[in-house]
Write a structure and sequence with these properties.
Strand order of the largest sheet of chain A: 2-1-3-4-9-8-7-5-6
Number of helices of chain A: 7
Oligomer: homotetramer
Radius of gyration of chain A: 18 Å
Strand content of chain A: 25-35%
CATH superfamily of one domain in chain A: Class I glutamine amidotransferase (GATase) domain
CATH architecture of one domain in chain A: 3-Layer(aba) Sandwich
Distance between the termini of chain A: 33 Å
CATH class of one domain in chain A: Alpha Beta
CATH topology of one domain in chain A: Rossmann fold
Structural class of chain A: alpha/beta
Largest interface: A-C, 40 and 39 residues
Order of helices and strands of chain A: EHHHEHEHEHEEEEEH
Largest sheet of chain A: 9 strands, mixed
């Protein structure tokens, strides 16, 4: 299993608070956390600043699961790279979309909706509840996961009804949020997981990283369906023989 | 549209608090609230104490939408009556399951799961959030609906994934709950709505009753599909001609 | 209820076979069929050739339900018009996507997938089977609907899993197709219905048009949720009061 | 992974045709086919005729995945055994329901619907099409799977909308059927797969058995969620700490 962690990597260099939490970048922390939990995986990283944002075709072709963290610079991600990621998802690559990446180009394109939500930065306590205990992403997860202080993300979250809803969060202010959502698009699997605001050490929490590792396992497909999906062919009778 | 409101009608006669809120019974209040909002509907009531619990075949045959409120006496509802209600749902009658009726015989039979949940009577504030604004039951509903004090119902709520999830609630204690859930079973439609604990005047809240009226409208089918579903027939080739 | 039927209106002017079936255009036939079944609706038409394709803001603002038939000229539909239609769907307008419009800009954008499929023009018999008899679109529909000769559309159809699957078709060649699919996106409802190839008189079949009328009724929302979805607002605690 | 294949084992002893295909019983063939494909699994069998139908508590407690084939004798399965299987599914055991077991006590209880369908024994050719190529059960499955002659099972199949629909079949007579359906109930996963009529050598087809092996893998959960679901506890504030 080959995993690539993508991060826009801006907050960590511009903001002392964030730098203190993630001195080498959110991507480095995520890669380390996943590495501990998925010893068999090859884990690489890529950032906005690299050539082709670190996602040339050769890298994506060798990626089974892509994590995506972005916030300030969604509009700076080149459409060509977004298209490349999109095509890989259609062909079966797994995609893990994190926190503020709900407004990333790749996520909104895959969802077909605005993906808007309500938010507040006020140190709300977030509790993450499991509503699908038979799902692979909930495996071994005690409920609730408590995030002592976090940005609030609240409904209405303008996404399609998830194919499977795994987690719902509450916040001190009383809001709720569908915080763990599974989608299948094309031959690919997508998991959106909302915890991970940059000014809180969320990706240092063990339970959060356990969910991320489970999610990598779920979006990953060791062998993809052989069905061709890339065009609309004109077929004869008994074409499959 | 012919609506029947069923209530076990025990708390209101045994508990002064409940009697003060619903002097003529929860069923009478619900019938009155729906009557104001659905002037074209014929609305009747039925209770556990009546012969056949007020639901003989003649009544059910003339019922398009059945509301069900029960708590203490699920086990006292005769299996024969449950079977009759079940058959009507299979044939297209709408069913609105309220609050503690999550453990009623009819609901657990239709769901096929335990329908267990966590609960607490501690005057939690409940906020009911819309997560499906394109659904008919969310029509005109501002979010959130605030119930100043209510019994807490929390996840994990052991139901099948709803066909459509309309509302999610939060509680002061931090719990969340899938409080408005749509299911289709057989030719019938079912809506589970959790607000309505007997010791709080929840069914006197206008916004709650607006949801109930919307829900009656959604589970109601003016004309049911003609497809036969009551048996597994052996059919010839071109049987439909 | 205000309905607008959009048609690219090319085949009918370039192909004698199609002209013979739909002398005034598919849009005119659809408008007439719906008019018979929905006497209370105001029904208008619009075509590719008109200014702004007949869909200026004033027309869309006054449209509750839009039907879309296109095939040869998806790429000629101006992005600005597609954006306008998209925004209206997000705000609650109903959209009925017909046959070859599975590859239209508006449908692929809303789905987030390629929407590819397999096809064959060989006079296959199509049978349309109901798999959701409690759905409003299946109301009164006998199964199967038999289309004596039609273009084959076959799986895999690259769409997200429909929120509700209403019809599945079979074809003489043995293929199957999810021919009636419901989606909710933003506050809008979308129904994709595959029957309607231009060289066969499909929209002259009564049972097909009954489905279309049911579908217009289902995607139509007389009153849309008041919840704001157009942005991601920063909200204070208790912002809703 | 511990797999138990349950079979009523009647046809094979009463019918020469069936005996010729499955001389040691359908259960033995299934166990052998799965054994070839899942070398790490421990595979046992159980039949109706054994004490407690071969499913005493000790066997079920040591079963991660149960396959169920039944037809003539659904009513002879003891309610006590059905209850035991049901409780294990609620707690996370996987269940694979095969062909005519759509009317078994365990399946209809889990579904909450009649599970009726249409059928015909007339050597129809069945084609099994994939409609969910990103699903683990479709892994490596070419489409369509062709079953040269089989009993026809047709819609309307009276089940809840599957959580995930993986396969749809067509038959020579023109019928369609949702032949591969995923459900989650409680903490357990259920897959219904319709191929497998006793008078045809369906479980000797490699592609069919590949699907069964994939399905065993999908319903299997190596580690189940720790969330308690067996009761409705009264909980204090901050009960989870």
């Amino acid at each position: 299993m080959r995993v690539t962690v993508w991060n826009e990597f801006i907050h960590e260099r511009n903001n002392k608070t964030v730098e203190a939490i993630y001195p080498r970048g959110i991507h480095a922390t995520l890669a380390a956390q996943l590495g501990e939990r998925l010893p068999e995986a090859e884990i690489g990283t890529a950032t906005l600043q690299e050539a082709e944002h670190g996602l040339p075709a050769a890298v994506l072709d060798a990626t089974d699961v892509l994590l995506w963290w972005g916030h300030l610079a969604h509009h700076k991600v080149a459409d060509e790279v977004v298209e490349r990621v999109y095509q890989r998802v259609m062909q079966g690559m797994g995609l893990l979309v994190l926190h503020s990446a709900h407004l990333s180009k790749i996520f909104t394109r895959l969802m077909g909706t605005t993906c808007n939500l309500r938010w507040r930065e006020a140190d709300d306590r977030e509790l993450v509840w499991t509503v699908n205990p038979g799902h692979a992403i909930a495996r071994g997860v005690s409920q609730p996961i408590e995030i002592p202080a976090h940005e609030m993300y609240g409904e209405y979250f303008d996404i399609p009804q998830p194919d499977e809803l795994v987690f719902i969060s509450s916040f001190s202010g009383g809001e709720v949020f569908r915080s763990g959502c599974c989608f299948k698009r094309g031959k690919g699997r997508i998991f959106y997981f909302s915890p991970g605001h940059e000014t809180y050490p969320v990706y240092e929490q063990s339970a959060v990283c356990d969910v991320l590792a489970n999610a990598v396992g779920w979006v990953y497909q060791p062998r993809v369906s052989p069905i061709e999906t890339g065009e609309s062919p004109n077929v004869a009778v008994d074409w499959w023989r």
